[in-house]
Amino acid sequence: MKNLVKSALLAAAVSLAATGIASAQNVDGPSVFWKWSTWGKPRAFTAGVEKLAERVSAETGGKFKIQIFYGGQLAKSRENLDGLKNNAFEGAMFCNFYSPGKNPAFMVYSMPFVPLGDFRVSAYVRNKLMEHPAMVRDMEQWNAIAYASTLLPQYEFLGTGKAPKTLADWKGMRVRAGGGVGQAMEVLGATRQTVPAAETYTLMQRGGVDAVSFPFSYAHAAYKINELATWYTANLQPGSSECPMVFNKTAYEKLPSQYQDLLMSLKDEVTQAMIDKYEEADAKNLPAFEQKMEKIVYDDATIAEFKQVAGEPVYKKFIKDYKDQTDAKAVLERLFELVEEAQEKFQ
Hints:
Elements: H1 2-24, E1 32-37, H2 47-59, E2 64-69, H3 80-85, E3 91-93, H4 119-129, H5 133-140, E4 144-148, E5 155-159, E6 174-176, H6 179-187, E7 191-193, H7 200-205, E8 211-215, H8 218-222, E9 231-233, E10 245-248, H9 249-254, H10 257-265, H11 267-292, E11 294-296, H12 300-310, H13 312-322, H14 328-346
Parallel strand pairs: 1-2, 1-3, 6-7, 6-8, 9-11
Antiparallel strand pairs: 3-10, 4-10, 5-8, 5-9
Helix pairs in contact: 2-11, 4-14
């Protein structure tokens, strides 16, 4: 009798599980095919859109498909916003500092020394800030809707030649650094260059740049900068940038409501997929970096000095430079409000 009861309970459980699975995979709707434009190859940065493509297909029984085109097949990295505006594809990433004039409000993400090292804080702040009217306007002019941040980790530098062990050592160095991070380095006397990530290895290989700032550590490894570098900074953390996942507005609005709801319901999974990959990359890369390269760790006094000389001046410059293009002051204030909210939420 006990065995019969167990068998019945097991059968019921399997039946319920199967029903749940069938339901989860049955968001009914029409056949939809989206093209997604990005650059480079599959890596932590693309883990979010890869998860999105996987899940929408599974949830709709293959009716809603997102095909990811890597390596700039559909558009160059600097031209993804143009492609969205021209309805050349339905989704893409873009980096804010590639074309500052195209997305002035989004340049706030490149402000130096914003404490977004904790991925939970970063996700909360970055995604909430995209709801600000100024950010929405930035995207609307390109027929785009911001979907989710790619949660770029804090930047660090990998370089060749003399290692910058003091702030003064940065003077005269040529660095690949965009946005506010690049401006912060200019305050130290460095010369900045802004080139797409895919072009950076060649630039460094040819001696055109001494140090490269990328989201640490996944991007340095993804673009093989670690193969050329002889040193790396471990705790400079001058800032980050934003290269969000965005939808073509026309394409999104054409979707049936159940598909729109599905996309939005998957944000947390998409975010977690990226976090997992970034952490996985660090676990692999950091020991290898430490073994191969000289590790530079700045003391607290040096970091405090860097923030003092290169923080507030860059914030003021952002407000001045973009005041005629967007509500720069309000966006910057909102950024730090959200940081406070997030720190209280996740402390």
